[in-house]
């Protein structure tokens, strides 16, 4: 297996569209690395450049120590699994998996042994004699992954590999993919627009917006310390609250007098907003003390937790509470910050201020 290094990757299509803007990425050997971002942000183009299916306008791509800029896809020693995993309909599962080995001229006995080993890993024994139309979507997906694995490539590139599956199967396949990756120690780069998938699967996530890298980090880093307003609002459900704030002595003052601690090193400038996760706030009956006064607008009871939407002087704020906290619409409550530090951003540039 091998890491993948990308330097100043830039891709402009002939019609002038710049899909990827000078992106740098260091993907570690054995890492499950996720490219996450909204539709059209350039994830797939980045992946296709790594695969060699698209030629970058400029920049370097290395797989292991090898510069692969001028290598054709087949020479890059990577396997790509697409959202639409096209299996050959007239071939059995076994023949589908073995196809790349046959194409590469691997001797039959060795090929059979490798197919058996991969089928065991993917728990496909018993399904190998069936043709694709006799396999479920999830089983077809596993055959497609097995076909990619059987060549023992240096790295796997996965483009929305779970998108076509129903919710339950998706969950199973997520677990399966994670186990598989752990077991193989394989370097995997996966594209998804699904933040839950990215958070649950990724060792690290690269968040891309409009062809540019917004942030690279572990799921927790990206969740707790979003590097930009875009990152703050893209990741998490509900999205991070973005609250107008002013520096007020030794604290930040938000809507309705909500007080927040000042993160170290915050510049004393105007035009700041604070990013506050719903679980960094709590609500309680009003005491007339230091909390920010708010009116309950809506309550969403999710069983294990409840999400309140409250109005704080015209700003809608989400608060996550245990299910035992019960208020009704129109109740007056106090909102208190119970997190460590809010994130603070420059409102106009969206860049982090502290
Ligand atoms: P999605 O999640 O919808 O697949 P994506 O993040 O993978 O989106 P890309 O497919 O990489 O996005 O596309 C990035 C941008 O490049 C988009 O604006 C897209 O319209 C544009 N694009 C992609 N392929 C071409 C092409 N061959 N010619 C011109 N523009 C293209």
TrEMBL record:
<keyword id="KW-1003">Cell membrane</keyword>
<dbReference type="InterPro" id="IPR012340">
    <property type="entry name" value="NA-bd_OB-fold"/>
</dbReference>
<dbReference type="Pfam" id="PF00005">
    <property type="entry name" value="ABC_tran"/>
</dbReference>
<dbReference type="GO" id="GO:0055052">
    <property type="term" value="C:ATP-binding cassette (ABC) transporter complex, substrate-binding subunit-containing"/>
</dbReference>
<dbReference type="InterPro" id="IPR013611">
    <property type="entry name" value="Transp-assoc_OB_typ2"/>
</dbReference>
<keyword id="KW-0813">Transport</keyword>
<dbReference type="InterPro" id="IPR015855">
    <property type="entry name" value="ABC_transpr_MalK-like"/>
</dbReference>
<dbReference type="InterPro" id="IPR003593">
    <property type="entry name" value="AAA+_ATPase"/>
</dbReference>
<dbReference type="InterPro" id="IPR027417">
    <property type="entry name" value="P-loop_NTPase"/>
</dbReference>
<dbReference type="GO" id="GO:0005524">
    <property type="term" value="F:ATP binding"/>
</dbReference>
<dbReference type="GO" id="GO:0008643">
    <property type="term" value="P:carbohydrate transport"/>
</dbReference>
<feature type="domain" description="ABC transporter">
    <location>
        <begin position="4"/>
        <end position="235"/>
    </location>
</feature>
<dbReference type="InterPro" id="IPR003439">
    <property type="entry name" value="ABC_transporter-like_ATP-bd"/>
</dbReference>
<dbReference type="InterPro" id="IPR017871">
    <property type="entry name" value="ABC_transporter-like_CS"/>
</dbReference>
<dbReference type="GO" id="GO:0016887">
    <property type="term" value="F:ATP hydrolysis activity"/>
</dbReference>
<keyword id="KW-0472">Membrane</keyword>
<dbReference type="GO" id="GO:0140359">
    <property type="term" value="F:ABC-type transporter activity"/>
</dbReference>
<dbReference type="InterPro" id="IPR008995">
    <property type="entry name" value="Mo/tungstate-bd_C_term_dom"/>
</dbReference>
<protein>
    <submittedName>
        <fullName>Glycerol-3-phosphate ABC transporter, ATP-binding protein UgpC</fullName>
    </submittedName>
</protein>
<keyword id="KW-1278">Translocase</keyword>
<keyword id="KW-0547">Nucleotide-binding</keyword>
<dbReference type="InterPro" id="IPR047641">
    <property type="entry name" value="ABC_transpr_MalK/UgpC-like"/>
</dbReference>
<dbReference type="Pfam" id="PF08402">
    <property type="entry name" value="TOBE_2"/>
</dbReference>
<keyword id="KW-0067">ATP-binding</keyword>
């Amino acid at each position: 297996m091998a890491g993948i290094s990308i330097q100043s990757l830039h891709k402009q299509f002939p019609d002038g569209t710049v899909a990827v803007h000078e992106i740098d990425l260091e993907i570690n050997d054995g890492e499950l690395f996720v490219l996450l971002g909204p539709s059209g942000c350039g994830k797939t183009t980045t992946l296709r450049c790594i695969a060699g299916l698209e030629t970058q306008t400029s920049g370097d791509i290395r797989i292991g120590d090898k510069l692969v800029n001028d290598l054709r896809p087949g020479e890059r020693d990577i396997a790509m699994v697409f959202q639409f995993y096209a299996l050959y309909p007239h071939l059995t599962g076994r023949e589908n998996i073995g196809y790349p080995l046959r194409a590469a001229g691997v001797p039959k006995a060795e090929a059979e042994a490798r197919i058996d080993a991969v089928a065991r890993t993917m728990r496909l024994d018993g399904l190998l004699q069936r043709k694709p139309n006799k396999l479920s979507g999830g089983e077809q997906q596993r055959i497609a992954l097995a076909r990619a694995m059987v060549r023992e490539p240096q790295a796997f590139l996965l483009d929305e590999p779970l998108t076509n599956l129903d919710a339950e199967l998706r969950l199973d396949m997520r677990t399966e993919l994670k186990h598989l990756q752990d077991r193989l120690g394989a370097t995997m780069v996966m594209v998804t627009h699904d933040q839950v998938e990215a958070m649950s699967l990724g060792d690290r996530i690269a968040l891309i917006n409009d062809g540019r890298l917004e942030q690279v980090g572990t799921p927790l880093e990206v969740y707790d310390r979003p590097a930009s307003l875009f990152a703050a609002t893209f990741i998490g459900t509900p999205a991070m609250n973005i609250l107008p704030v002013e520096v007020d002595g030794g604290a930040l003052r938000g809507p309705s007098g909500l007080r927040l601690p000042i993160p170290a090193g915050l510049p004393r400038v105007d035009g700041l907003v604070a990013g506050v996760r719903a679980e960094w706030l709590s609500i309680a009956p009003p005491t007339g003390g230091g909390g920010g006064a708010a009116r309950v607008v809506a309550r969403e009871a999710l069983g294990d937790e409840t999400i309140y939407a409250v109005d704080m002087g015209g700003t809608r704020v989400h608060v996550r509470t245990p299910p035992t906290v019960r208020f009704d619409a129109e109740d007056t409550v106090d909102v208190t910050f119970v997190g460590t530090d809010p994130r603070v951003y420059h409102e106009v540039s969206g860049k982090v201020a502290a």
